[in-house]
Amino acid sequence: MTTLPHARHAPQAGAIGRIKLQAHALTPSLHRVATHILERPHTVVHQTITELAQDARVGESSITRLCRKLGYPGFHAFKLALTADVVTSTPTPTPHGTTPSERASWLVRQTTLTLEETTHLLNAATLERAAYAIAHAPRVDVTGQGNSGFMAQYFAHRLMRVGISATAHTDPHLAAVGAATLPEQGVMIGITASGSTIDTVHHLRLARERGRFTLAITQRASSPVTRHADAVLYAAGQEAPLNDDTLTSFTSQALLLDVLYTTITPHLPNAPDTLRRTAESVVEKKY
Questions:
Q1: Of 46, 67, 89, at which residue does a domain stop?
Q2: 76 plus 105 within the same structural domain
Q3: Residue 199 maps to a domain
Q4: 202-260 confidence digits (pLDDT tens)
Q5: What are the CA-CA distances from residue 172 to residues 49, 199, 204, 237 (Å)?
Q6: I want to staple 81 with a disulfide (CB 3.0 to 4.6 A). Which of 15, 26, 93, 237 is the partner?
Q7: Mean pLDDT of 152-158
Q8: Contact (Cβ atoms closer than 8 angstroms) between residue 197 and residue 219
Q9: Which residue blocks in the chain are alpha helix, DSSP H?
Q10: Domain range for residue 129?
Q11: Does the residue 141 lie in any domain?
């Protein structure tokens, strides 16, 4: 069977075109995946590899093999190409409006809906379990890549202000070292909207293999990161590779992290005094 050239060297065919071109030469399991994708491309662009595998009733390795057979290095690269096909073939009206005021109103509505959805996803028992582990941890490492890295820094800073030893890792190598050196009862928190960020999944797996408590913050219930988490908290939102939904993703994650923070502080009797001292420590840095 012939494999198409790598995606970078074969731009003439889109993802859907490549599937149709190769369909006759696929094995039964790969053909099942290909058929599923062709029938539901608008759904697949929002799915993780785990969700697609469940829907198509195949293993994740079959999806990876199909992507490589089509000339893509992996599922994420394939999904980007598929999204481009879907966007090109489906003309959709832009809901953002034509004036700054209309665009602002649309963003406010979308953000409000996302925040409300996040509150419905809150699980009190999971929050309490995670809060207790964090409050009593000798060290907390928070890891995230890309935009999730900003949220990792945000939450680590919040924890530091109440006296918890916390470090944010946006460098995957340093995060791996952190996971490998977490002390007993240490906590590793992984933030990944898609739930499929390879480095973040790797960091939680490393920490959990050493018996450390792991917490995943994600928008996807069926995603690789959840397999390596002792607790999972969900923020609302839907991943679309070519959509710039950073604002709604940030705000839903920030809300979730702040709810977690307010669940942690009751476990810290000295939190008010620590907050006062940390506030005083930077008072000379402001006019």
A1: 89
A2: no
A3: yes
A4: 999 999 999 999 999 998 877 899 999 999 999 987 555 555 567 888 899 999 999 99
A5: 22, 6, 12, 24
A6: 15
A7: 97
A8: no
A9: 15-22, 28-39, 41-44, 49-56, 60-69, 75-89, 100-120, 124-135, 147-161, 172-181, 198-209, 246-264, 271-281
A10: 100-285
A11: yes
